[in-house]
Amino acid sequence: MTITWFQNALCLVEEGGELSARRLSIEIDGQTIRALHDPEAAPTPGCDVIDAAGLLAVPGLVNCHTHSPDNLARGTSPDLPLELWSLTSSAAREGRTSREIYVSTMLGAIEMMRSGTTSVLDHVKISPDIDLEALDAVASAWADSGLRVTIAPIVADRPIIETMPFDVDDLKDLDLSGYGARMPMPAAEQIAVVEAFHQKWHGTGEGRLKVAIGPSGPQRCSDDLLVRAGDFSERHATVLHTHVLETRLQREMGFRLNPRGMISHLGSLGLLNSRINLVHAIWLEEDDIERIAEAGATVVHNPVSNARLGSGFCPLPRLLAHGVRIGLGTDSAACNDGVNLLETVKWAAILHNLIDENEANWVGPQRALKLATSGGADVLGLHNAGRLAAGMAADMVFFRLASPAFSPLNDPVRQLVLSETGSAIERVLVNGREVVRNDRSMLVEEAGIWAEAAEFAERNRRDNQSALAATHLLEAPIRKMRTRYGINMHGGCSCH
Ligand SMILES: [Zn+2]
């Protein structure tokens, strides 16, 4: 096993619950950090010594929520709220070949590794039906990229017209035979596909690949499917990853499922436990936060996506004050429109300053960076990632200190979060293996992937016009529904 010794790096290590910068040498034995040494210590005989005096070593970032199929649709979605946005984005995912799915996954992997993400949760929607061959293409791309990934295939079994609080009168004159009326694949069959996928890929890639389960959202799934997904998560000890309460309309749907709302609905099905990832969690009821905290459930905060879609403010400071375990996510390249987690960390650090005048409640760079490293690792159940410490996986990012963001160097954590974009990255390691060096991924032929993506995008623009036209049948009923629930009537913000 090769031992590598990064001599005298400025390292961000957790001490007393805070990330602090310390001059240390990092000894890596194969896939693992063997030890952190005083910078004066002599390297282990025979190891590869790398002079790291000009580098800031940071635990690899953990992106807790993205959707790889959307990377091919980057830049195509107009400025619309979620329910209208999703009409466009879902059409763009229809009828992909395995190679398109592979390339779409790899586009995100390249962007993420080049901006310091080493672990990711990919919430994968295969359209129109979940399919093992398509999921294989996703897993192959992640395996080839060198990144650490948890793949949570999306399951859902309610037709779209049952997933929003439509008024039946608004739908009665529409011909929805091409869309929304198709019978979904039965719950048991969907779970069987995820079982087969789990059996094939979980634990592969030197342990880098994990398979979890990802109900799209409680309002998009029958209780039967949700319970089966919960059972899958328990049997395989994986996270159950689901969008929850992203918009006000989803809150309305929650009340249709349970008089006390969506979080209570999940609780009544036995799903509110330490394995669940509640993605977005914006429109919570007053007592939901206590309920989430008591259950040890986790929240994934996606501030850029929430702003892009006008969804609202996740009550991050209050969740933190209640001790809720939280990770950060970029969400997809169709609603962000990138997957650079450093940008998301900055938003998480400062966004809530806009709606809380008491600076004691502000999240700030220190807490935001912890959410993006050890916090995210905890949310995904990655107990060996997210920290620079002996015995942890060697997942780390080295930033050049001789760069705009760190010149002059006054506060490494503040400058990393508020100033750096990824342009100062010198190298990235995952499981001890170098995946990025000097603005280039080491295991992926980037230019070839980008050329293929350009070809696929051209074809999609040409071929998905009919799918787009079909989905836009629902535009008028959705606009009426939004008005009915008082959205877009006052022209103001909906932040509280
Ligand atoms: Zn999402």
Topology:
Blueprint: E1 3-15, E2 18-29, E3 32-37, E4 48-51, E5 55-59, E6 61-66, H1 82-92, H2 98-114, E7 117-124, H3 132-145, E8 148-155, H4 168-171, H5 187-201, E9 209-211, E10 214-215, H6 223-236, E11 240-244, H7 248-257, H8 262-268, E12 276-280, H9 288-295, E13 298-301, H10 303-308, H11 316-321, E14 325-328, H12 341-350, H13 364-379, E15 396-400, H14 412-419, E16 425-430, E17 433-437, H15 446-463, H16 465-471, H17 475-484
Parallel strand pairs: 1-4, 1-5, 6-7, 7-8, 8-9, 8-10, 11-12, 12-13, 13-14
Antiparallel strand pairs: 1-2, 2-3, 5-15, 15-16, 16-17
Helix pairs in contact: 1-16, 2-3, 2-15, 3-5, 5-6, 12-13, 13-14
Bound molecules: zinc ion.
Walk me through the structure.
Keywords: Hydrolase. InterPro entries: Amidohydro-rel (IPR006680), Metal-dep_hydrolase_composite (IPR011059), Metal_Hydrolase (IPR032466), MTA/SAH_deaminase (IPR050287). GO terms for molecular function: hydrolase activity, acting on carbon-nitrogen (but not peptide) bonds. Helix 2 packs across helix 15. The chain has 17 helices and 17 strands. The longest helix is centred in the C-terminal third of the chain and has 18 residues, at 446-463. Helix content is 36%, strand content 20%. It is α/β, with parallel strands linked by helices and 496 residues long. Bound molecules: zinc ion. Zinc ion is lined by residues 65, 67, 123, 243, 279, 331-332. Residues 65, 67, 123, 243, 279, 331-332 line the site of zinc ion.
